[in-house]
Structures are given as C-alpha cells and as structure tokens.
Design brief:
four-stranded antiparallel sheet; single chain; 344 residues; Alpha-Beta Plaits; eight-stranded mixed sheet; alpha+beta
C-alpha cells in the first residue's frame, strides 16, 4: 500500500466562550441554544487507508492501543471504552471495504477542549475522502454527532462537532430546525490582538463531561427553574459576547466572560471545585478579566482573558497553584486534509 493511498485529516479543538449546555438537545429543541466558540491549532488527526477484505485495523496513539478486527461488527463488539467512539464512527460511515485508522490528539484525556468532537469530525472526514466523497462541514458535523449522540448515547450537544468542522470564531444557534452558523470575521491583525488577551492552562485533573452534562440534561428535562434560568443567561451572554467581538471591545468581552463563568457554576454544582474557585478569584486579583473552564467543568483545561500587560502576572500566580500553561494560537480553519504521518 503506497503512502498516496492514505487520507489524513485534521480537525481543531475549540475554546467555548459562552452558551455551553444550551446546545444539549433537551434544551435546544425546546428553547433554542446559542454557543460562541473559537477553534485552536490543537486538535485531532485521523488517517485512513484501505485494507483488503473487511478487516479493520485501529491505532489510537493517545492510548497506546493497536488492535485488528475481522470486520466492523467485531470492532463494535470490542466493548473497550477506548475504542467505543471509533467503532461508532466507522459504523456510521459504513465503509465498503476494510480500513486502517490511526487517530491521535496529543492532549490529556478529559481535556474539556472538545477533543472527542474533533476526533469524530477528523475520522468522519478522512473516511469520507477515502470513499471518494468531499463532504461539507455540516455533513461531517452531523455524521460525527450522530455517531456520538445517537449510537453511543452520550449526553452531549453538537457544539464541538460544528466548531471542529467549520473552524473560526462562530456563534452557533441550535434548535429543533437544525443548526445555524454566524461566522464572526476578523482581519489577521484583529485576530492577533484578540489572541494576545488569552492563555490556556491544564489543571492536571481529568474530568468526565458526560457525568456533568447528564445531570444538566436531567434537570432540564425536569424543568428545574434555576437550571433553565442560568442556561438562558448563558445564551444571552453568547450573543452579547459575539457583538463585543465584532466591535473589538475586549474589556467588555472579558466582563461578559466572567459573568458566563458565574452563570455556568450556577447550572451545576460540580462545574467548579474549591481549587477552581480559588484559582479564578486569584487570577482576577492578579489582573485577569476572567478565567473559565473550557468544557463542561470539573477539571481539564482552563483559560484566562487579561490585558496583555497583566498576562505574566496571571501566569505566575496560576503556576504557583499547579496549573500548567499550554502554548496555542487561534486557527480559523476547520477540518481539512493534511500530510500523513510517517509510518512507525
């Protein structure tokens, strides 16, 4: 098999600024959701190449796992948590023949950056291209969502898949009629100015978003007034922050980001533990406008927004609290073909 037969795709992870949780079907289909997010240079790479017969070869670099199966059904019957998502994605794509898949993110599991959504989009796109199709971003996002939400039954929304598929800074609106994308365009100089206000930190703790989101879903279904009110605030903040971004009003963006953190902690008690609360308060005392968890909460990555002149003060404080700084930049591109990795 020549290297030319391999299709490689990259899908970006995202920073969620506001509206997370309003994309859950239980909320979005009744009230309409809105999520503001931007994509990063961090993300998921998936490589696909054809195999003879019906065999499926899976290599998951993040878990150090290599396994071969007789067919798609054998992969689905594996039962290991590490292979569950890939099994659902392959089943959703329904490849005509055998396939070898290699997947990696290089990120800690439970990062909160939407890595599973990025994996879903990268694998779906790579399998589509291998079959000779050129799927649209919306098609890829819907197929990846169907695998993770429909086949696996995970209590999540579709914000991660849509962010990874389209890329950029977007206000996505979710409802019973589908998903609408409101792209926020900025010139390169404005992108750099925006990025200069942000830093990314790993808390050192893994988290299970499904546990946090399942609780939110149940409270939404039960009509819990406090949960619905806070989700409504998050939706309003997402729209207001999109307006602030268009205007380049970074102090206002930061103020709204902090309001979003306060509303988010009101949605679920397990979003923030004592350490996170202390870190957010300390970061603000050292000059940050806001500090926020990147995903559903309870660990993973956090990010800060601060005036550029105060960033190092904030970073020094958080280093003392055990938060590891990660270098990144905003990448406005969505899922795309990339050069395949060398075989090892």
């Amino acid at each position: 098999m020549s290297p030319a037969d391999t299709v490689a795709a990259f899908a970006p992870c995202r920073l969620g600024f506001a509206g997370g949780g309003t994309d859950l079907p239980a909320y979005a289909e009744r009230f309409g959701g809105a999520v503001l997010s931007a994509t990063l240079n961090l993300g998921a790479r998936a490589e696909a190449r054809p195999l003879d017969g019906r065999r499926v070869l899976v290599r998951l670099d993040d878990f150090g796992l290599v396994a071969e199966y007789g067919d798609v059904d054998a992969l689905a019957a594996d039962g290991r948590a590490e292979t569950a998502l890939v099994a659902a994605l392959v089943a959703e794509a329904r490849p005509r023949g055998g396939v070898a898949l290699r997947v990696r993110t290089g990120l800690p599991p439970g990062s909160g950056l939407g890595a599973s959504g990025a994996v879903g989009v990268a694998v779906t796109y790579a399998l589509g291209r291998l079959a000779g199709r050129l799927p649209t971003p919306a098609e890829v996002a819907e197929a990846a969502s169907a695998a993770e939400i429909g086949r696996l039954g995970r209590p999540i929304g579709r914000q991660d898949q849509y962010a990874a598929a389209f890329g950029g800074l977007n206000l996505f609106r979710f409802g019973s009629g589908g998903v609408r994308r409101g792209e926020i365009l900025m010139r390169p100089a404005k992108w750099r100015e925006f990025a200069d206000h942000f830093m990314l930190f790993f808390s050192g703790r893994r988290r299970d978003s499904a546990e946090v989101l399942a609780g939110q879903r149940d409270r939404i279904a039960a009509g819990d007034e406090a949960t619905l009110a806070n989700l409504g605030r998050l939706k309003e903040l997402a729209v207001a922050m999109a307006d602030a971004a268009r205007a380049g009003d970074w102090p206002l963006f930061g103020e709204l980001l902090h309001r979003g953190w306060l509303a988010k902690t009101g949605v679920a008690a397990n979003v923030a533990d004592e350490r996170a609360v202390r870190a957010v308060a300390g970061a603000r005392e050292h000059g940050a406008w806001a500090m926020k968890v990147t995903g559903a909460g309870a660990g993973g990555f956090f990010f800060t927004m601060a005036p550029p002149a105060r960033r190092e003060d904030v970073a020094a404080f958080l280093a003392g609290e055990g938060f590891k700084r990660y270098e990144f930049y905003f990448d406005p591109r969505g899922v795309r073909e990339v050069r395949a990795l060398r075989r090892r």
